[in-house]
Design brief:
The chain is built from five helices and no strands. With 119 residues, the protein is mainly alpha-helical.
């Protein structure tokens, strides 16, 4: 069982358009930043396979590799899309939208009148 902070869930519901940066990662919004990073990794594992987060980490370990082009080249999505998809998965996991119950189809009401089946 994993828990997510209320602030992170609320931020995800509002919409997150960026990955957290190094300078502010551990600021007052650290719980939100950790959740965005965590659920972006969850999204990578779900969409690209369980080794995808490690492949991305390995790519960043290569010296002199700029962040955005590496993500773009590896995943064919931007960091913005990665943040959005990761937080959408967070919301889907912790606060799914309830599926509405189908409306029953009305049945014909029987009548006492005879029908004419000769036509």
């Amino acid at each position: 069982d994993r828990r997510i902070g209320v602030a992170a869930l609320e931020a995800a519901r509002r919409g997150v358009d960026a990955m957290p940066d190094d300078e502010t990662f551990n600021d007052a919004d650290a719980a939100v930043h950790y959740a965005v990073a965590w659920w972006s990794c969850e999204y990578l594992a779900t969409a690209y396979g369980p080794s995808a987060p490690w492949n991305v980490l390995d790519a960043f370990a290569a010296p002199g590799t700029p962040e955005s082009p590496t993500i773009q080249a590896l995943l064919q999505i931007s960091l913005t899309k990665l943040a959005r998809r990761g937080t959408a998965l967070l919301v889907e996991t912790y606060a799914p939208t309830p599926t509405p119950s189908p409306t029953p189809t009305p049945r014909a009401t029987p009548t006492d009148e005879p029908t004419d089946d000769t036509q």
